Amino acid sequence: MGTQKDPEGHRKRILDVAQRLFLEKGYDGTSIGDIVDGLGGMTKGAIYYHFPSKSSIFEAVTERMADDDFLGQDWRADWPGNSGLEKLRNELVISLRSYSRHEVVYSAQAMLKSPRMVGEMYLNSMDRIAKVIGPYIQEGIEDGSIEPCDPDDVAEVLFLLLNMWIGLRLTAMAKEEVARKFRLLKTIFDGIGVPVIDEGVIQAAVDLYGGLQGSNRAAGKA
């Protein structure tokens, strides 16, 4: 079977096409047939050889995009910043400005309403992302920009609050609510000596909200 000759190459092609279609048409507007057509020569059976369902393709696409954002390079060495705290803020701003990844996730409205799917998505991501955030927190403790704490616990709480408390409802909120919730996050993390949420992070979140709302309005007119 052709799919066995270059499994990674075929898998990458499927994800590349699916990612493009999810961005163009949204998850709910993209079918397996659309992905087959976009691949030009690969059969539906070949897709199912690699992925059992459209939702599993979606999970792989969003996981890959998250890895590109957080794990694609040695962020601690390459990001600007004079302290662990500054580097962590930079990471959050860049993540919030990774508009295409967020657009893919929020295009899957049906999946975002499924507790099982949401739970699996975020639990699968939490350990990976926390391992990226944790070293910045540890660096901040060592350089004095962050108060002593357990880096892994703080990383997990930050991830959960950003993604579960705010992220799941982001497009359903008003702009003022987004800013208000991020300011509450600022108060919480300032209070434990991890002042990672600053005005730059809040503005990036508000900008992301505006971009997603604009995309939703454009999709509604299409």
From TrEMBL:
Coiled coil: none
All residue ranges annotated as the HTH tetR-type domain in the record: 8-69
Keyword DNA-binding carried by entry: yes
Pfam families listed in its UniProt record: TetR_N
Keywords: DNA-binding, Transcription, Transcription regulation
Superkingdom field: Bacteria
DNA-binding region of this protein: 32-51
InterPro entries referenced in this protein's UniProt entry, alphabetically: Homeodomain-like_sf, HTH_TetR, Tet_transcr_reg_TetR-rel_C_sf
GO molecular function, one term: DNA binding
Signal peptide span: none
Protein name in UniProt: TetR family transcriptional regulator
Species name: Bifidobacterium aemilianum
